[in-house]
């Protein structure tokens, strides 16, 4: 049955909010602060979405706000009335100033890649995104200014409504595609254009589809094949491929993420391109880029056929080699385990990994990062996928210390529902077809840990915990 997402809340307009604040002041003799607080509470109770409202500016003239004035200045400059470089600088300064004030010192300013709600809403209402697209078109021969415009565009796309507007304006995707293909574009410009595309695709299904349908993602994959592609560009391009193959927009009834993965793998050799990139990236010295490549592999390897192609070309062994070399680097370790976890849905990959020592590597990773619940969760997930319907691998896992590791992980990460759920699954998988392994868990106190997981995390662990207790041969497993 398809997932039924919650019905979207109605959007509250700035005008309706301002009117409610004014009414509270005039009719109930409230102070401005009290009136704003009361209006927020009232609209929240009524179920409105206030994300597009500037609450702390209610009753003021937003058109006089420095960001609104900067947006107007940029529109004028794009129309030939003023200097574009000066207008870009003014917009950047106004966004930084507003964000600094709202974040208590600028820790989340424009340079950090995020903005306050106030700054985002005013910039969106002022048409900053559309003006920046026009500025990019006019500045293609001025690399420094073009990069500044693209950086501002990427920051503005942190706001969902701006991303929706970008997706609805096909000229934005066309502009990015032109910048990627232009012979005059520098590697820095291509990297910035890819970063904008990735930002636009986050949680917006329409943008994902436009990026794939326009051929932009295919262009990225073609350019990734160049041995001289800079690492910054590799990371940005992989980010786009990963975004369009990730179903993270809850609003449409369905996502094309799986179809995108199939099309990109079949028609544009995506999984082979990613393998060639993975082999080029020095994971030990460039962990951030390696993590992005591995995360993209995880998303593109969406079915058995793609997993088999990646495996036949040596991809599984390449991932495992990175894991062995960089297990001590937490982020790379987690990314490798995540990619292998996805690939291990294939029966062929399960056996290959077991023969290559992946079980022992997973246990070692958990030991190396004993305090990291996310490493424990993904390592347990990998082991569960490897051992599912594979009794011989379950036996090898028992000999490699998996029962001890599972019990220790449950004890160490008792508050973490994802870890507890994966641990429950691993216990069940190991003993379901190998009853001789039951004592290895029972003698270490697994029963009490499983019951505790069910009690502490009923939504995540009640079903899998009961199944594990049942397959351990215990009575009252539903209690």
Automatic annotation (TrEMBL):
InterPro entries: ARM-like (IPR011989), ARM-type_fold (IPR016024), Armadillo (IPR000225). The keyword Cytoplasm does not apply. This is Armadillo repeat-containing protein 6. PANTHER family: ARMADILLO REPEAT-CONTAINING PROTEIN 6. It comes from the Eukaryota. The keyword Repeat applies. Keywords: Repeat. Residues 92-102 have a biased composition (Low complexity). Residues 92-116 are annotated as: Disordered. Residues 103-114 have a biased composition (Gly residues). SMART domains: ARM.
């Amino acid at each position: 049955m398809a997932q039924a997402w919650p019905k979207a809340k109605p959007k509250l307009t700035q005008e309706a909010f301002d009117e409610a604040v004014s009414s509270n002041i005039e009719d109930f003799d409230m102070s401005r602060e009290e009136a704003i607080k009361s209006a927020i509470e009232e609209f929240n109770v009524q179920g409105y979405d206030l994300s597009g409202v500037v609450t702390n500016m209610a009753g003021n003239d937003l058109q006089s706000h420095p960001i609104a004035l900067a947006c107007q200045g940029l529109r004028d400059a794009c129309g030939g009335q003023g200097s574009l470089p000066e207008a870009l600088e003014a917009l950047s300064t106004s966004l930084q100033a507003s964000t600094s004030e709202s974040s208590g010192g600028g820790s989340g300013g424009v340079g950090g890649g995020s903005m306050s709600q106030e700054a985002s809403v005013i910039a969106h209402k002022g048409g900053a995104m559309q003006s920046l697209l026009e500025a990019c078109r006019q500045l293609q021969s001025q690399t420094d200014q073009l990069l500044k415009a693209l950086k501002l565009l990427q920051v503005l796309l942190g706001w969902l409504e701006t991303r929706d507007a970008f997706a609805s304006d096909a000229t934005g995707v066309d502009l990015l595609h032109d910048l990627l293909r232009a012979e005059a574009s520098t590697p820095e410009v291509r990297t910035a254009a890819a970063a904008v595309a990735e930002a636009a695709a986050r949680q917006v299904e329409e943008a994902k589809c436009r990026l794939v349908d326009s051929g932009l993602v295919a262009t990225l994959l073609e350019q990734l094949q160049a041995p001289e592609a800079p690492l910054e560009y590799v990371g940005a391009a992989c980010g786009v491929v990963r975004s369009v193959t990730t179903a993270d927009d809850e609003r449409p009834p369905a996502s094309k993420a799986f179809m995108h993965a199939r099309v990109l793998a079949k028609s544009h050799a995506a999984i082979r391109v990613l393998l060639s990139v993975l082999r080029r990236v020095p994971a030990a010295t460039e962990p951030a880029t390696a993590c992005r490549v591995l995360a993209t592999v995880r998303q593109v390897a969406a079915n058995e056929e793609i997993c088999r192609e990646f495996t036949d070309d040596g991809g599984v062994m390449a991932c495992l080699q990175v894991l062995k070399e960089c297990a001590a680097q937490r982020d790379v370790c987690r990314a490798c385990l995540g990619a292998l976890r996805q690939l291990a849905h294939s029966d062929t990959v399960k056996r290959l990994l077991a023969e290559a020592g992946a079980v022992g590597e997973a246990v070692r990773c958990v030991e190396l990062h004993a305090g990291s619940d996310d490493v424990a969760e993904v390592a347990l997930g990998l082991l569960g996928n490897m051992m599912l319907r594979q009794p011989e691998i379950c036996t090898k896992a028992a000999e490699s210390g998996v029962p001890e590791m599972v019990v220790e992980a449950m004890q160490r990460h008792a508050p973490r529902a994802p870890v507890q759920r994966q641990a429950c699954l691993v216990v069940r998988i190991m003993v379901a077809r190998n009853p001789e392994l039951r004592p290895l868990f029972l003698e270490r106190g697994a029963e009490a840990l499983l019951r505790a997981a069910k009690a502490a995390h009923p939504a995540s662990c009640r079903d899998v915990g009961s199944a594990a207790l049942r397959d351990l041969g215990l009575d009252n497993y539903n209690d």
